[in-house]
Specification:
The complex is a heterodimer of chains A (82) and B (588). With 82 residues, chain A is mainly alpha-helical. Chain A is built from 2 helices and 1 strand. Chain A has one domain (8-74). Chain A has helices at residues 12-31, 50-74, and one strand at residues 75-76. The radius of gyration of chain A is 21 Å and the shape is flat. The relative contact order of chain B is 0.08. Chain B folds into 3 domains: 1-141 and 198-235, no CATH class; 238-483, no CATH class; 490-587, no CATH class. The longest helix of chain B is centred in the C-terminal third of the chain and has 57 residues, at 488-544. Classes of the chains: A mainly alpha (82), B mainly alpha (588). Chains A and B meet through helix 1, helix 2 and strand 1 of A and helix 10, helix 15, helix 18 and strand 3 of B. Strand 1 (75-76) of chain A pairs antiparallel with strand 3 (482-483) of chain B, so a sheet runs across the interface.
Chain lengths: 82, 588
């Protein structure tokens, strides 16, 4: 495969299309929620967008905690054990 | 006619022929082994067992029930896939170790007594070791050695437990044990080490990334899942497992976010996935045990698929750190596709295998109204998508182009990945197949509108978080570094122990030498040498005083000393001690 061949994500427009696709699907997922009723086990499952907010907040907290709390504690040079 | 041959026998005895064969015959033979073994297994009746009397105990080296069958099926399937994958690697050591390893795992799964169970359990450790050492690097040697030490320790704890348990129960049959005595605690912990419980897990993240390209595929499938089987067999419904499992799902994902070595990221997410199974076993209802078994089945497929894709990346580029990779979708498009299918499955996207298995465990937790556990598992589900679902494919195949222009993975690897990817989707689309082989009847429907929607919301908004963090530059950059983990205790602790022993014991040694050899012995010799003459002089001098004058005293003393030292006088201080000793013996 020649190195000067253009690939799909070399074009910034395609990257942008992926992002727009993501945003559109997010809006869609929230938009259809009022029309779908389940049998929740917990009260909070009935809050609007519970799963969406939980997923988003969980990931942000995960990354921040890993970056600012865990990494300063555990990071060592690659030859630490040698 | 032979009714059946135990799979472990076919694998282990069959592996011995492998080094003698060459070329296509060898490849065909190796694929033939799991196929034959599988044929015997499906022709075996559920409930059949093989009993042998040995030293007064009833051994049951082969026993089939529905729980062991689930694991038996998946172990056959994954060893078949693993063998296809390694065909292009051409290493007899790995073939032999891989087959014995898979055979030992099958031996554990179909063991009907504690003795057989333990023998295969130890063979699992010993054969796995060669899959690590076969990489033949200094790092893999050291990691393999640590792997051995940890598992030998675990094996001894298990053995101690088993021996005490047998003497308690007067029986070696393998069945429900439950947590109630020191013996059962030992068994529990011995199994827990192989299941990579928190703080006992670091052998896994230490050794798996150091193993060979093909070795990691085998390793990821057998050791921990054999422990899952063992715990499901002996400790279902044991409550501590719920908390252990919840901790296992949560803590590794933090490490996975900051880890640079992508196979180590997969190792952390392996622990996370086994955590779901632990929770399922701990809850102990039919739904949750089904969930644990189903999740083990699905997990083995997508986890080894991910390890295969990362192995292919190492095989072609020689690199595995996220800092060295990126943009590989251009030269390895098929590997990138299969990796993405594995990533979608581990994230439990609808229509993939993870969706139909993981939700059983979550549902079981919700049925039991365990809100904290349920929220932890949900957090872990979002987190696993974040690091395994996005991070692995993104940093290896997309991200900034690291400039690797390599060939696509060899055909055998692509075929193996293709089969695994097929099953990931097949199980997701047609869960009835998976549900039909579970230990208990299944009354669970994964595809309901609210369930699909909530799962998609959870995942897509996690993806949004990743995207926003990445675009804003907050996402932690991959750094060439290592991250300390529980193995610090024995890796640095080993050095510390050595130093403490070196400084402590050697100083004591020196002090004792100074005290005894240099002071006490020298003093004793001096006493022995001089005391008789001195005593004699002391005793005699009052009498001699009148006969000699002071000037002669010195000469007389010197003569006395000389004579005493040459043994002229038949007396010595030690002789005196002996006399006192016998005197005391006589009197007392």
């Amino acid at each position: 495969m020649s190195s000067d061949k253009k690939h799909i994500f070399d074009n910034p427009r395609n990257v942008q299309r992926v992002l727009y696709g993501l945003f559109a699907s997010l809006v869609l997922l929230l938009a259809i929620e009022p029309f779908i009723h389940g049998h929740p086990y917990f009260a909070w499952e009935e809050w609007f967008g519970f799963y969406a907010i939980y997923g988003f907040v969980a990931c942000v907290l995960l990354v921040l905690a890993a970056k600012y709390i865990l990494r300063p504690f555990v990071k060592r040079d690659e030859d630490y054990y040698d | 006619m032979i009714e059946f041959i135990p799979p472990a026998f076919i694998y282990i005895a069959g592996s011995l022929l492998v080094p003698l064969l060459r070329g296509r015959v060898k490849s065909a033979y190796m694929l033939f082994l799991p196929a034959v073994s599988f044929f015997f297994l499906i022709s075996t009746q559920v409930g059949s067992a093989w009993e042998v009397s040995f030293l007064g105990f009833d051994l049951v080296p082969f026993k089939v029930d529905r729980l062991s069958l689930v694991f038996g099926y998946i172990f056959h399937l994954i060893s078949f896939i693993g063998i296809i994958y390694t065909l292009s690697i051409k290493s007899d050591l790995e073939y032999l170790a891989g087959l014995v390893y898979a055979g030992s795992a099958l031996g554990v799964v179909f063991a009907g007594d504690l003795f057989t169970f333990f023998v295969f359990w130890e063979m699992l450790t010993v054969s796995a070791l060669w899959l690590i050492w076969a990489k033949r690097t200094k790092a893999s040697q050291a990691a393999g050695f640590r792997y051995l030490m940890v598992h030998v320790f675990g094996g001894l704890v298990l053995l101690a437990g088993i021996i005490m348990y047998i003497s308690e129960q007067q029986s070696i049959s393998l069945g429900f044990i439950g947590l109630h005595s020191p013996a059962t605690f030992c068994i529990f912990i011995g199994m827990g080490i192989n299941a990579a419980w928190p703080l006992l897990h670091s052998w896994l993240t230490d050794a798996y990334p150091e193993s060979t390209v093909g070795g990691a595929v085998f390793l990821s499938a057998f050791t921990t899942k054999t422990a899952v089987y063992a715990l499901a067999r002996t400790f279902p419904g044991t409550e501590p497992l719920i908390w252990i499992g919840a901790a296992m799902t949560a803590f590794p994902i933090f490490y996975a976010v900051i880890e640079n070595d992508l196979r180590r990221v997969l190792s952390y997410s392996l622990i996370n996935q086994v955590g779901f199974m632990m929770v399922g076993i701990g809850i102990g209802t039919e739904l949750s045990i089904n969930g644990a078994a189903a999740h083990a089945f699905a997990h083995i497929l997508y986890k080894s698929l991910l390890f295969m894709s990362m192995g292919a990346v190492i095989f072609r580029t020689g690199k595995i750190n996220a800092t060295d990779l990126g943009g590989l979708y251009k030269s390895m498009p098929w590997t990138a596709l299969f990796c993405s299918i594995g990533a979608a499955s581990i994230s439990a996207f609808p229509l993939t295998s993870g969706f139909v298995s993981k939700s059983m465990v979550l549902d079981a937790a919700a049925h039991g109204h365990m809100s904290i556990i349920w929220l932890t598992l949900l957090f872990a589900s979002a987190g696993v998508f974040h690091h395994s679902g996005i991070k692995i494919p993104f940093f290896a195949f997309f991200s900034h182009d690291a400039g690797h222009r390599v060939k696509e993975a060899p055909p055998s690897m692509l075929i193996a990945m293709g089969i695994a990817a097929f099953f990931c989707i097949f199980l997701g689309v047609y869960p009835r197949f998976l549900y039909s082989i579970l230990p208990y009847p299944v009354d669970f429907i994964p595809y309901t509108a609210p369930h699909v929607l909530s799962q998609l919301q959870l995942l897509m908004f996690s993806a949004l978080a990743f995207t926003l963090l990445l675009l804003s530059g907050i996402y932690p950059a991959e750094i060439r570094a290592i991250n300390l983990d529980a193995d610090l205790i024995y890796r640095k602790g080993g050095h510390l122990f050595y130093k403490v022993m070196d400084k402590g014991l050697n100083n004591i040694n020196r002090a004792v030498e100074q005290l005894f050899v240099n002071n006490f012995i020298v003093g004793l010799t001096r006493i022995v040498k001089h005391l008789p003459a001195k005593m004699l002089a002391q005793i005699c001098w009052p009498f001699w005083k009148s006969a000699f004058d002071a000037a002669d005293k010195k000469t007389i003393s010197e003569n006395l000393l000389k004579r005493a030292q040459t043994g002229f006088y038949p007396i010595s201080i030690l002789g005196l001690f002996v006399a006192i000793y016998f005197g005391l013996l006589y009197l007392l």
